[in-house]
Design brief:
heterodimer; A: mainly alpha; 50% helix; B: mainly alpha; globular
Chain lengths: 252, 180
Amino acid sequence: MMTPPSPQAQLLLSRYKTTQSLGEGETARLLEVVRERALRGDLPRFDVQPTTPAPVEAGLLQRVWASSLGKVGVTLVLLGVPVAGLLVLQSQSPAPSAPVQARLAPVVAASSEPATAAPQAPPESPPWVADTEVQPEPRGASRAKAERPGPGASSTSTESTIDEEMRLMNAAQAALRGNDPQRALQLLREHAAAFPAGKLTSAREVTRMLALCQSGRGEQARVEADRFLSQHPGSPFADRVKKICPEPRSKP
Amino acid sequence: MIDALPCGDTRAAARIAEIFTGHADFVWRSLRRLGVPSADADDALQEVFLVAYRRMDDYEDRGLMRAWLFSISRQVSSHYHRGNKRTEERHRGLVVITTAPDLEETLARREAERIVNAFLDELEEPQRMVFYLSDIEGLTAPEIAASLEMNLNTVYGRLRQARKRFERLVTAQAQQGTAS
């Protein structure tokens, strides 16, 4: 009997996979090229003789995972999608829980289990989400972005708060990407003033360290990094934070 | 017999579009994992699907589409020079990162990318592809056995070993995270 990957390993691998994708635009472009070439009668350049794979009995259990992959859903976040995420995600993305659930059943290696052992449906929520360090948003909150608030929606204030948080954070990150760390720092200060206990405080702190570093204030960035690490030793960004502005950093 | 299919077959083209939509990412990643340099990956991807289009009639739908595509990818990849994986792996793949939900998730994904790439790089070949197909692509063990033309028990054995190593790495990472 094969042990499935631990929740931590699954999380890591799922995250990894989101980074290894063509992206929707590229997929669409390449599809168009392939279709055009196929219809035009282009021949493959290489003489490839594909072998039709021989079937081995497949446990349907694994298929549950398999079927969810390779779709746009890949770009969706894995765990309860931090609220903010849905704001940026493409509107056609399905509710986050579906692909998340579906990828939770990795090869469990039921080597010779009959297909009838297949589960009927994935669990309501991923069993390992609760173990992750990234806190999933409350269900209501995470839905807030996925759907346009209808007239009867009651979570609009939560939503607008998150919107505002995201707006500031996105602007700060954009400033950082545009090599304008001063602007980024200013936006982060605004964020800190407006949302001292917001949803994105860790993100704010990390962005701030990056901005400090970019603006030549590496020493301060490292001080803040050390503080962050002592306060959040288990943060998923701990490793990243350790590497912020590394050059002159010397271990005692 | 490569041109068994007449050109301009719109039905087959529609079918290939469907297959492409469902599996382009998988094929693209597989090609990269099989050593096709990032500069050639798009080209190789088109090649795989052109072969698939031409060979569609040979394919018997027994639920092994990915294994079939992988088999084509494997052959196609052999026509490309292997890239320098360590430097190449990072070039592509940031596309989706830009649409990550927030900075925290973005950073976590980058970290995951670094860790998993490093792990895959150091894994020996017999285990690497099995681990990749199983735990990253989500293929079933039978699908992997078909893809790699490998005995099912061998798949399990290699997967078990690779997972064990990966778990050790994950644990070490976690300890490192909390130690500092």
